[in-house]
Amino acid sequence: MVFSFCSLLFSIHVPFATSLSFSFNFSDPGSYCAPDADIACAGDAFFHAPFMELTMNDISEGNNHSIGRVWYAQPVPLWDKATGEVASFNTSFSFQIRPVNTDYSADGMAFFLGHYPSGIPLGSYGGNLGLFNGRNNKNATGSDRIVAVEFDTFRNLRVDDDDNHVGIDVNSIVSVVSTSPDKKLTLGTTMTAEISYENSTEKLSVILWISETSYRINTSIDMKLCLPEEVAIGFSASTGSSIEVHRVLSWSFNSTLAGKSSSTLLPGAAPETVSSKSQGKVQATIAFSVAIFSVLVCSFMGFLLRKQRVWKKANQTSDGEFEDENDKAEFEKGVGPRRYHYSELAAATGNFAEEKKLGRGGFGHVYQGCLRIDDKDRHVAIKKLSSESSVQGRKEFEAEIKIISRLRHRNLVQLIGWCDSCKGLLIVYELVSEGSLDKHIYNRGGLLKWPERYNIIIGLGSALRYLHSEWEQSIVHGDIKPSNIMLDASYNTKLGDFGLARLVDHGAKSETTKVVMGTAGYIDPELVNTRRPSTGSDVYSFGIVLLEVVSGRHPVAESEDKFFVLLRWVWDLHSKNTILEVVDKRLRGGAEMDERQMERVLVVGLWCAHPDRSERPSMAQAMHVLQSEDAKLPELRPQMYRAEPVLAMLDLEHGYTDLSVWTSSSGCTAVGSDA
């Protein structure tokens, strides 16, 4: 009610001349990305002084296919419907682009003006720069409309001229004008961009400075036709199969939107002819009076509301974590691990200190903490979901708590506790010392030997067999991938992240879902068609992981002229009877190389990832063949690869136009039909 009343007061129209000006130097301390901060962040973007990082930047975490967005948290007036006036603006920012692997760069970043409130388009990683998805990247409409200046570092066929250019995009990833600097954008040096728009000429101009050299482009744009009255402004970046750092060091913006005089007079007022100076004084006086009155009234009402909230909070007994005790009781029903207060977990992590951070993903951050458990100090991992967590994020949180709290298996991560607070959703796990499997597979500094890899495979299979057939209900995990497979000090498997898990009675079919969720490259193609998650979907993902562990290669990789699909490659070598060429080159010729065992794992991997779900084994069958040398290998036809797995190559060139794709709170890709 307070908001509505205040909105009414402030909606009184007074002829105006509005301007907006701000400047941020990210080397200065600040609470950027916080809920009430001037800078908002989404996806993988985060503040780490002296930079605003747009994408993940740690090669040890295998952080490819990253998307991040940063924008000014308030709407920016672009044009006024009543007067027809369009803003003039100029902005300047310093930034850096640096590939983590100097052999490959991908994909670039952009300054953008788009729909407010801002959000990352579904499936917009890779060449889409976090601006568009595969359906709208050449003709964005409605709330997808965007004007951007791109700094592109990867050539996407039929879209980009080269892998080093600056372009202006108008509702399309195909630039209307571009230039290719003779100096690389990916040198890692600090560059400066100056972007201006003049409303009288409708000209958008860009100047990029690399060292002492400038590069210029411009084009004419009618902002009223291209964008809404109020816009979000900020930066967007994405990566594909390679990892690239995108950093903003400083940013300033100035805008002026001058409204025309209003011809509407107050009721009962007689027309008068006044000079522009007198008229300006009258308008300024009215505006000032209305503003002061509105502020006083809203402040008083806000004070009353705040007092009411303080009284309400003082009479609560649960940190405000559940407004409805019935909801609390229902949620805790059957949950064994203890429920923590937010303050306890904040203290355990030094108030979620940066140095306590173990990793990050689409879901938020994971921190190391220390809690007193059974009269002993115990190190734990605390997953803190992003403050932007949606309804889907809460569903994943509740699913994970309700399911994993009831499971007991040596190859599953142990749940210790949880917190459902108005300040955030948190899950407390045992701390698994060696981190996730993907860090070890792609760690160039160390080699995961074959016996260790085989032991990890068997541990993962054992966990899935338990989930599918050995517990009281069948559990579909829904997101089997190396980053969800943790390793303890002895390199034993600990499967985690049950945010997408589903419970199904043994022998029953799971319900269909409107949205298919998982991670690109690991999603069962039949799941997209049937919309029915099943244990067979997990088996498919398990098969892909087997191929990945043996080969040391990602399920999908992008090069300048083609896409590499691991499953297709293994099927091809299998048809030529040269399947051992798949084996990670770092393992070949070693004393611990077991060719028969490796071949067995690869063939089982193909069997599990069979395009026909009815031809796939159960986890019990797959484990029997993996663990028994006497078990007969399945007879697979030489070539069973039909097409790239759905979502395996979701990008600019190979997007699935009949699908919608977005990211869940646990960093997963989601697919839904437009029908």
How is this structure best described in words?
The longest helix has 39 residues, at 276-314. The strands form seven sheets. Strands 1, 3, 4, 7, 12, 13, 14 and 16 form an eight-stranded antiparallel sheet that branches. This protein has 13 helices and 31 strands. The protein is of the alpha+beta class.
C-alpha end-to-end distance: 38 Å
Under CATH, the topology of the largest domain is which?
Jelly Rolls
What's the architecture of the largest domain in CATH terms? Sandwich
What kind of assembly state do the chains in view correspond to? single chain
Helical content (DSSP H or I, runs of 4+): 10-25%
Shape: globular
Concise overview:
By secondary structure, this protein is α+β, with helices and mostly antiparallel strands. Helices cover 24% and strands 27% of the residues. Helix 8 runs antiparallel to helix 10.
What does the secondary structure layout of this molecule look like, with pairings?
Elements (H helix, E strand, L loop, with lengths): L1 H9 L6 E9 L13 E5 L2 E3 L2 E3 L13 E6 L3 E2 L10 E12 L8 E8 L30 E7 L12 E6 L6 E3 L11 E8 L4 E8 L2 E8 L2 H4 L3 E9 L5 E15 L17 H39 L10 H8 L5 E2 L2 H7 L8 E5 L2 E10 L2 E10 L5 H14 L10 E7 L2 E7 L6 H5 L8 H21 L3 E3 L8 E3 L5 E3 L6 E3 L10 E4 L6 H6 L4 H17 L4 E3 L4 E3 H10 L19 H14 L10 H9 L31 E5 L5 E5 L2
Parallel strand pairs: 17-21
Antiparallel strand pairs: 1-16, 2-5, 3-4, 4-16, 5-15, 6-15, 7-12, 7-16, 8-9, 8-15, 9-10, 10-11, 12-13, 13-14, 18-19, 19-20, 20-22, 21-22, 23-26, 24-25, 27-31, 28-29, 30-31
